[in-house]
Amino acid sequence: MTVANDGVPADEFETDLLRNLAHQRGTTRQSASAQDIYQALALTVRDRLVDRYVKTAATYYETNPRFVYYLSAEYMLGKQLPQNLLYSGLQNQARDALEKLGLDPAELEDLDVEPGLGNGGLGRLAACILDALATEDIPAVGYGIRYDLGIFKQTFEDGAQVERPDDWTFYGNPWEFAAPDDQQPVGFYGKVEDGKWTPDEIVLGEPSHMLVPGYGTQTVNLIRLWRARASRASFDLSRFGEGRYGEAVDAIVRSENISKVLYPDDSTELGRELRLKQQHFLVTCALRDIVRRYRLRNTGWDAFTEKVTIQLNDTHPVMAVAELMRVLLDEEGLDWDRAWLIVRGTFAYTCHTLLPEALETWPVALVERLLPRHMEIIYLINFHFLQEVEQAYPGDTGRLRELSIIQEEPERRVRMAHLAVVGAKAVNGVAELHSKLLRETTLRPFAELWPERFHNVTNGVSPRRFMLIANPRLTGLISSRLGDHDWLRDLDRLSELEPAADDSAFRDQWREVKRANRRDLARYARAVTGVALDPDAMADVMIKRFHEYKRQLLRVMHVITLIHRIRRGETAGLVPRSVIFGGKAAPGYYAAKRIMRLANAVADVVNGDQQLSAYVRMAFLPNYNVSGAELIIPAADLSEQISLAGKEASGTSNMKLALNGALTIGTLDGANVEIRDRVGADNFFLFGLDAGQAVALKQAGYRPRSWYEADWELRETIDFIATIDGGALREVADDLLNRDEYLTLADYRAYIECQDEVAHAWEDRDAWTRMSILNAARSGFFSADRTVRDYGREIWHTPAVPEA
Ligand code: F55
Fold it and tell me: Which cellular components does GO assign to this protein (predicted)?
């Protein structure tokens, strides 16, 4: 009998698996479908984690610690099976058991569906933070919405993005526990009389939870996701009796629509009532649950701020400020000052953007109609706040206007970021530069009023998800060098790799790992796109949401420049590259979708031409998601982080890629600045305007056309865009010439020259490998574990509670 690290003999796992197959799936080994086996396997792994969770819960109950409650409208958790197998130490038993039963683990992993309950960086960050909280033994619960349909599935038809629904729970989700007996009522509409709200519509929030295990610790925390259910009274019996069956269920459909679909926009969807409903739904359910949990071990309100800290992931859950006030005033009978003190001591707010158009505001008229009592409370909060402003700046109406929670022109709107800053004890940006720019620009008047409220907490990523799970080869190599696996919980230990950069045998091994990963990626790219990538070519990767400010267009313009150079025979200094794109565009974001079509059109040109594809092949991998990231990142040699400086709050693919040994070509934007500081300027390809220069250039009156006229190679590139596919994408060229909001033309020459340097550096493969190793060795700072320790020290003040 083999006994593995957690003491579970392999045949016991097999017994449990077969028992779950029978008792949970009601079937036998002989007639079980692959889905049956997958579900039974998941349940077997889940059972072990539940045992751990029960102990964690007991420890928390006993110690009554301070909890972090993370409120986020989005989570991109990634596949649960590989993570839970690894974290529970059951990998070997599971493999042995499956082997004995003649089953293929990889095939079963294919059936594990990733919950795509987020759009991009913000949602993935939330998942990394939950992973790190559990790993750091910090008592925490994540709250979110259990969307029936997650982020859409992306395919391309004739080069254009096509969106299909992501019905991720079609076959059931074995990782979650539903708790229909724990439903919470959530009110909407109605009227307020004497400060008492009588809603017109009540929707029920039904929670289900999933387990969030820590790595290398016993702690298992929870994520609690809410779905909307109609109350039983919503079924209209009289209509049904009249034979109007459709209308009889109208109210049910309307209620349950609240958690039907994730908004697939990563910049604000303005004024959508359903979205505001989602936000209110989430915060009401979460706060009820938080209060319920608090009351398990505490009475009264005196200890609330000591036991509860609530982190607001961007403005989407900021209605919680008004809702907690409402609960304290209207339901608990506290007076204003006491209630406000509690609220102000409870919340902290993370901002994830600098783009003014992404700062959420809601029409006062809409809030008034949907949440009349909340609107009253927001007015009152604003009234008290503006009195404070008036004291700080007597007679300064300009200050009042710019700070007010209510924007007056052109239409009265509630500024959610203002409500957040006013209602929170702490506000943070997500990278040094971002936090500085928030203080100096976007939130400047607030930073002047309350400088002590502003913090920076630089983002981080899960080393488990993006090293251990995604890149087992590199993880194995690093562990063999460092002597153990513990660096996965203490990522600063990657610095011990530094000397290995000068060890030529190690460099060979490192290169071999990269090559094997590129081979895997090439196989995948071939299967999904038909494009044959060369595993020896440089994997040049840009993976992120499609957004104009991120400048995927600049990336494509480099490829077009290469096309012209190759056709002219200027191939000296060129190196073979696999240009890889991954990313989705918001379905209604026309300009981003045009750029996608251009990328696909250019890909067809290079892939279909032997002369060109000797140097550059291009694959746009559809449906980029966490699983896609796990495949692409380990193979990457070059990480494209080329946003216009001052626009990207942080970026996190930059961190994942550097950790996996990719070198960055990037601007001084977001966390690129800190990555470069750490890996060293010699190991980073910097180009382009900095944030100050970008602003200055715009202020001086930027004329893109003059850049076009001054650079013949740029001209050739833009003319190519104007004429490709019979001029179908001429608008892209026109927009560049007439507007170029993100200064693409201004950064073009610097980017091209920097890419030439990249090619040159790639030619000395040994020196490149050295830089690659140093990138990984010096990126330990970008662990999400460090991020939550920073939050813990600066904002939450949460001691760790390891299991006794
Ligand atoms: C989603 C919905 C709305 Cl309404 C607005 C924004 C988003 C969203 O997904 N934002 C987002 O992903 N922001 C990103 O957050 C990352 C984590 O902090 C940053 O790294 C990245 O720079 C930022 O763009």
Answer: cytoplasm
- Span 519-538, average pLDDT: 98
The Cα–Cα gap between 634 and 656 comes to 9
Instruction: Decide which of 3.40.50.360, 3.60.15.10, 3.40.50.2000, 2.102.10.10 is the CATH code for 64-78+114-459+789-796.
Output: 3.40.50.2000
How would you classify residue 592: left for phi > 0, otherwise alpha for psi between -120 and 50, otherwise beta?
alpha
Mean local confidence (pLDDT), 714-731: 98
Give the pTM. Answer: 0.97
Q: Are the folds of 64-78+114-459+789-796 and 498-781 the same?
A: yes
CA 570 to centroid of chain Cα atoms: 41
Residue-range domain boundaries for the chain: 1-63+79-113, 64-78+114-459+789-796, 498-781
The minimum-distance atom of ligand 1 relative to the CA of 671 is: 20
| Contact present, 490 and 465 (Cβ < 8 Å) | no
| Ligand 1 pocket mutation pick from 71, 75, 119, 122 by most atoms within 8 angstroms of CB | 122
pLDDT tens for each residue of 417-463: 999 999 999 999 999 999 999 999 999 999 999 999 999 999 999 99
652 tagged catalytic? yes
Q: With contact defined as beta carbons under 8 Å apart, do 125 and 789 qualify? A: no
CATH topology for 498-781 is Rossmann fold (3.40.50)
Q: Give the Å distance between the CA of 259 and the centre of ligand 1.
A: 20
Among 117, 313, 352, the mutation site with the greatest number of ligand 1 atoms within 8 A of its Cβ is 352
- Residue 416 and residue 676: Cα distance in Å, rounded? 33
Q: Name the nearest CA neighbour of 45 among 185, 211, 180.
A: 211
